């Protein structure tokens, strides 16, 4: 329940367009602004919305929804083609061109990026889309290896988005056991000290043992936080529970085309023999009982679900993640009372994400916090609110919805993400992107936003800088600055790069 004290405050977002930016990506010029914002809020959580397409507003093509098997099959076909090309008696330059063309055709993550961004710009479920970005950052998986680039999108779209209406217990378990997470946090290199693999390795003078990266981040970042005062022994024992969970492509190779790749051939920094589609490898598992934060855990794969459920239901997890949600939507100065409202919903519902997100909406509605927008959130809002056709085929504008004649997307999305310094497919630290304003305010970051704002303008927005300022109730100071712009483009850039637009 929202406290009487907070309910008595003046609502800060009477401007519906600003409210849609506070909790989503704003309304497009062709959107029907809801007459009742409370009904709209409820629909944001209850409704099922279609994901829009690559090049125009339309349903996302079913052929661009890829399973893990399809993703890895594409990767394997590319690797096989590369191996074949290397053996051909052609010039080095021709080999390079052929490999590049093959990679372009196989790169599923380019579709994944476009799906994420098109949904934010054209979708109706803009609060769920913001939640998707929040949870994708919370469960960070940075791409660097070829393998991870192919599976990050599956984590974002098929695990996180599809489970926003479920429980945190389920989301945590599914994210922890996802191939991208297991690879990113090195659990593929995690073997129990007394596992069959470790014993056999010692016999031939090699070593295999615990890697606690995933166990550490599972506790430190994804759930209870260091406030829980767990010990290094707890982390070590959690790593023992996680030992055996990895992804090994060897079984996959046997199922698909019997791919002929030399043993130990790298995929990024991993080898084919280190992956499987059935992620639990008994020969890596640590036998025996483990004690974690005073609770016993048996041997075997079921222990991990028991561990993630325990962590999900821990009071410190509710505290930690309630604070993160409040900071993301309200702002980094969210106070204890505001955080407690989300926390109370978390505890009362035992981690029901719909109830938690509903409380987040309600408390954000009646608070005065200011949120400095992430670069990608800012850009997507700029595209959406201005009505720019940035996502459509527009060579001159540099939009990132362009498709080649062969049906493959152009690399533009990733280039823009990298330019703005905020790519969900970049190699990042496991704690994700910062929510602090000071980490995003610099001459360099402003210069990047100016360049992106110029590209949005060149995509032909239907709203001018002055219209955006009036629509969103910009300050008189900002409106004066816009009026002094030398031309329409400069006025548009001033509007999008003003404090009124970058912070809401």
Please give a structural write-up.
This protein has 504 residues and is mainly alpha-helical. The protein has a domain at 375-502. Helices cover 53% and strands 2% of the residues. It is built from 25 helices and four strands. It has helices at residues 4-7, 16-23, 37-46, 68-87, 92-106, 108-122, 126-138, 146-160, 168-176, 179-184, 196-203, 213-220, 232-242, 250-255, 302-312, 315-329, 336-349, 353-365, 375-386, 412-420, 443-458, 465-471, 476-483, 488-496, 499-502; strands spanning 266-267, 270-271, 290-292, 295-297. A two-stranded antiparallel sheet has the order 1-2. Strands 3-4 form a two-stranded antiparallel sheet. Strand 3 (290-292) and strand 4 (295-297) form a beta hairpin. The protein starts with a helix and ends with a helix. Residues 249-276 and 393-399 have low confidence and may be disordered.
What topology emerges from the helices and strands here?
Layout: H1 4-7, H2 16-23, H3 37-46, H4 68-87, H5 92-106, H6 108-122, H7 126-138, H8 146-160, H9 168-176, H10 179-184, H11 196-203, H12 213-220, H13 232-242, H14 250-255, E1 266-267, E2 270-271, E3 290-292, E4 295-297, H15 302-312, H16 315-329, H17 336-349, H18 353-365, H19 375-386, H20 412-420, H21 443-458, H22 465-471, H23 476-483, H24 488-496, H25 499-502
Helix pairs in contact: 3-18, 4-5, 4-8, 6-8, 6-19, 9-15, 12-13, 16-17, 16-18, 17-18, 19-21, 21-24, 22-23, 22-24, 23-24
């Amino acid at each position: 329940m929202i406290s009487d004290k907070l309910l008595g405050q003046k609502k800060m977002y009477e401007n519906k367009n600003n409210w849609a930016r506070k909790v989503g990506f704003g309304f497009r010029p062709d959107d029907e602004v809801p007459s009742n914002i409370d009904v709209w809020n409820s629909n944001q959580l209850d409704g099922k919305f279609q994901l829009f397409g690559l090049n125009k507003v339309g349903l996302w093509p079913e052929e661009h929804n890829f399973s893990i098997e399809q993703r890895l099959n594409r990767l394997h076909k590319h690797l096989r083609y590369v191996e074949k090309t290397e053996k051909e008696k052609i010039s080095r330059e021709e080999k390079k061109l052929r490999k590049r063309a093959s990679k372009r055709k196989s790169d599923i993550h380019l579709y994944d990026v476009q799906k994420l961004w098109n949904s934010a710009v054209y979708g109706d479920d803009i609060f769920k889309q913001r939640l998707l970005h929040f949870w994708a950052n919370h469960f960070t998986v940075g791409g660097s290896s070829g393998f991870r680039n192919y599976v990050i999108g599956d984590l974002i779209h098929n695990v996180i988005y599809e489970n926003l209406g479920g429980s945190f217990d389920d989301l945590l378990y599914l994210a922890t056991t996802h191939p991208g997470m297991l690879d990113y946090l090195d659990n593929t290199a995690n073997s129990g000290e007394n596992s069959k693999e470790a014993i056999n390795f010692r016999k031939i003078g090699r070593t295999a043992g615990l890697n606690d990266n995933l166990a550490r981040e599972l506790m430190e970042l994804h759930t209870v936080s260091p406030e829980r005062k767990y010990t290094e022994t707890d982390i070590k024992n959690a790593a023992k529970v996680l030992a055996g969970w990895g992804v090994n492509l060897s079984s996959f190779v046997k199922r698909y085309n019997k791919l002929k790749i030399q043993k130990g051939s790298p995929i990024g920094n991993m080898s084919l023999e280190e992956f499987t589609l059935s992620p639990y490898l008994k020969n890596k598992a640590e036998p025996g009982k483990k004690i974690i934060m005073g609770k016993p855990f048996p041997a075997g794969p079921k222990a991990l679900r028991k561990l993630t459920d325990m962590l999900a239901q821990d009071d410190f997890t509710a505290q930690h993640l309630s604070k993160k949600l409040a900071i993301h939507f309200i702002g980094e100065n969210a106070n204890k009372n505001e955080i407690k409202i989300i926390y109370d919903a978390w505890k009362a519902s035992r981690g029901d994400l719909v109830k938690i997100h509903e409380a987040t909406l309600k408390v954000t509605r009646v608070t005065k916090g200011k949120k400095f927008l992430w670069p990608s959130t800012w850009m997507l809002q700029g595209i959406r609110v201005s009505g720019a056709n940035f996502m459509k085929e527009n060579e001159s504008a540099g939009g990132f919805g362009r498709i080649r004649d062969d049906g493959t997307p152009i690399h533009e999305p990733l280039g823009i993400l990298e330019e703005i310094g905020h790519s969900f497919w970049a190699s990042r630290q496991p704690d994700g992107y910062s929510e602090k304003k000071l980490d995003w305010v610099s001459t360099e970051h402003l210069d990047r936003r100016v360049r992106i704002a110029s590209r949005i303008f060149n995509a032909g927005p239907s709203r001018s800088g002055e219209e955006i300022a009036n629509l969103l109730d910009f300050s008189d100071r900002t409106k004066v600055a816009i009026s002094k712009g030398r031309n329409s483009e400069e006025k548009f850039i001033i509007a999008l790069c003003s404090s009124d637009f970058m912070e809401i």
